[in-house]
Write a structure and sequence with these properties.
The chain is mainly alpha-helical. Helix content is 53%, strand content 0%. It contains 4 helices and no strands. Helix 1 packs parallel to helix 3 and helix 3 runs antiparallel to helix 4. It starts with a helix and ends in an 18-residue tail after the last helix.
Length: 93
């Protein structure tokens, strides 16, 4: 089971604590809101990686964006805040 400091590490860089988005969903030490925060951070990181790859700055990292988005959808938690559309994130519906 993860400790609160693990959550703090995961919110900064999810790959320091988890190897796959499914591990975030399966972590019994997290609330759904914490899971969402970690997955959204991971999504942002993956979108930035995608942009870097489009600009020819590939470091060979695996892009797991679809897996992250599927995990977020599985979680079925919808925060009240809406984010502005950016190149890293799609338009708001």
């Amino acid at each position: 089971m993860n400790t609160p400091s693990d959550f703090d590490k995961a919110i900064k860089d999810p790959t320091l604590v988890y190897h796959a988005p499914g591990e975030v969903l399966a972590d019994p030490g997290l609330s759904d809101e914490q899971r969402l925060q970690i997955l959204k951070r991971w999504e942002q990181d993956q979108r930035e990686l995608q942009v870097a790859q489009e600009e020819g700055m590939s470091g060979g990292e695996e892009n797991i964006l679809k897996e992250i988005l599927d995990a977020i959808e599985t979680l079925d938690v919808h925060p009240d805040t809406r984010e502005a559309p950016t190149k890293q994130g799609g338009p708001i519906d």
